[in-house]
UniProtKB/TrEMBL annotation:
Domain Saccharopine dehydrogenase NADP binding as annotated: residue spans: 5-105
Species: Speluncibacter jeojiensis
UniProt cross-references to InterPro entries, sorted A to Z: NAD(P)-bd_dom_sf, Sacchrp_dh_NADP-bd
Protein name according to UniProt: Saccharopine dehydrogenase NADP-binding domain-containing protein
Pfam families to which the protein is assigned, alphabetical: Sacchrp_dh_NADP
Stored PANTHER family: SACCHAROPINE DEHYDROGENASE
Domain of life of the native organism: Bacteria
Signal peptide (residue range): none
Length: 380
C-alpha cells in the first residue's frame, strides 16, 4: 500500500519546488492550501495528463486539520512561519500518529517539537522530522559522518558544524538580517554535555570550505537535539550559520542586545512581521529559477578531541538551499509513503534524519541530490 502524501503549503515557493520533485520521482501528492484556484492551477501544471488531487484547507483551522490527517498519512509542510502557522499542523500529525516532515529552520520551533511533542509522538506512533531541508539535513549528515570517521582514530570531544552558501541563500541581505533579528529575540541553546541555554550569535567560528575562509554565527539547531546520542563521549557541539560575510562580527556583537529587546512587550511578534514582510510575505515567490540554479550549498563539520586535535573533518557541497530543501523533503516523503506506518522496529517520536533513516541511506540520498562529500581524517 502506498500512503497518501498531504503536501501542505503546496502553492508557496518551496512547496511548488517540492511538489515538482515529488512528481518527478513518480509520486502523486495531494496538494493542500487555502486558495482553490491556485491549487487547481498547480495540480494541472505538475501533471497535465492526470491532474493531482487538491484539498482546500486553512492551517489555522485545528478541527479541519485533525479531521483530515490520519495515521496512514505522510504530512509534508512548507507553511512557515513555523512558530505560528506550523504548530497546528505538526500537533495534528503527532496526535494522529502520522509521518511528518517540514521545511522549518527556526531553532525555537524545532526544539519545541522535540521537547513538547516527542513523547506524544512516541505514544501515538508518529514520526516527526522538522527541519528536513538545507536546515538541517546536510549538517546532521556531515556531523554524523564526521563522528563516525573520528571514532576510528580517537575519542570525539567537540563537534562544530557550519552552514554557508554561494549565490542565492535561504536568507541573505535584508531577509537574512530580519531572520537573525527574529531568532536573536528567541531563547537560544547549544550543547555542553546536555542541551542548555545559550545566547544566539554568542560566538563566531571560521571554516575553510569552497576555497574560502568563511565565518559563521553560533545558533541553536536540530543537530544539538539529535547528534549527541551518536557519540557518548561528545561534550561540546556548536552550529554556525554564515549568511553575512564581513558583517558577521558586527551582528554577533549586536546580538547582546537581543535579551534586552526581547523583554519589551510585543517585540517578538513585531520581529516576526518584519521578517515576513522583508521575505515578500508568507507566500513569496522567492528567487528566480535562474538565480537558484547558480546557488551552491556548503556545509562543513569537524570533530576534535579534548586537546583540540582534529580527528575528522568533512565538507559537503551541492545544490543551492532551495532545490536542496525540495529534494530532501521529496526523498523522505517518498520513502515514508512506501513504508508501512506500523513496520516493526521502525523508530517513532521526534527524529533527526539519521535516527529516522540511518546514516547509509542518508548518504545515498545525498549523493542522489547532488551533494559531494570530502572526508579528511587528520589524526593517526
Amino acid at each position: 500500500m502506498t500512503r497518501r502524501i498531504l503536501q501542505i503549503g503546496a502553492t508557496g515557493h518551496t512547496g511548488a519546488l517540492t511538489a515538482a520533485a515529488l512528481v518527478a520521482a513518480g509520486e502523486r501528492p495531494v496538494l493542500v492550501g487555502r486558495d482553490a484556484d491556485a491549487l487547481t492551477a498547480a495540480a494541472q501544471k505538475l501533471a497535465p495528463d492526470r491532474p493531482l488531487e487538491t484539498l482546500v484547507l486553512d492551517v489555522t483551522d485545528v478541527g479541519a486539520l485533525r479531521r483530515t490527517i490520519g495515521g496512514d498519512d505522510v504530512v509534508l509542510s512548507t507553511v512557515g512561519r513555523f512558530p505560528d502557522r506550523g504548530r497546528p499542523v505538526v500537533e495534528a500529525a503527532a496526535e494522529a500518529g502520522a509521518s511528518y516532515l517540514d521545511s522549518s529552520w527556526e531553532p525555537g520551533y524545532i526544539r519545541w517539537v522535540f521537547d513538547k511533542l516527542g513523547r506524544r509522538a512516541q505514544v501515538r506512533g508518529a514520526r516527526l522530522m522538522p527541519g528536513f531541508g538545507y536546515d538541517y539535513v546536510p549538517g546532521q549528515l556531515a556531523g554524523a559522518w564526521a563522528l563516525e570517521s573520528a571514532a576510528e582514530v580517537g575519542i570525539p570531544f567537540r563537534l562544530e558544524v557550519g552552514y554557508f552558501c554561494d549565490g542565492v541563500c535561504r536568507a541573505s541581505g535584508a531577509r537574512g538580517l530580519a531572520a537573525v533579528t527574529e531568532t536573536a529575540l528567541e531563547p537560544g541553546f547549544t550543547f555542553r554535555g546536555r542541551v542548555c541555554e545559550d545566547r544566539p550569535a554568542a560566538r563566531t567560528a571560521e571554516f575553510e570550505i569552497g576555497g574560502h575562509t568563511r565565518v559563521g554565527l553560533s545558533t541553536g539547531s536540530a543537530e544539538h537535539l539529535t547528534l549527541p546520542e551518536l557519540a557518548p563521549s561528545l561534550s561540546e557541539l556548536d552550529v554556525y550559520q554564515g549568511w553575512f560575510g564581513w558583517a558577521t562580527e558586527i551582528v554577533s556583537k549586536l546580538s547582546v542586545l537581543g535579551p534586552v529587546i526581547a523583554g519589551v512587550p510585543g517585540s517578538r511578534a513585531l520581529a516576526g512581521r518584519i521578517s515576513t514582510l522583508l521575505a515578500g510575505g508568507p507566500d513569496s515567490e522567492g528567487p528566480s529559477a535562474e538565480a537558484m540554479a547558480q546557488g551552491r550549498s556548503l556545509v562543513a563539520a569537524r570533530v576534535t578531541d579534548t586537546g583540540g586535535t582534529v580527528l575528522a573533518a568533512l565538507d559537503l557541497e551541492g545544490p543551492g538551499p532551495y532545490p536542496l530543501t525540495a529534494q530532501s523533503l521529496a526523498w523522505a516523503a517518498a520513502v515514508e509513503a512506501h513504508t508501512g506506518p506500523k513496520t516493526v522496529h521502525r523508530r517513532v517520536g521526534a527524529l533527526g534524519p539519521v535516527q529516522a533513516f540511518g546514516l547509509d541511506a542518508l548518504r545515498d540520498a545525498a549523493t542522489q541530490a547532488g551533494l559531494e562529500a570530502q572526508v579528511v581524517t587528520a589524526a593517526g
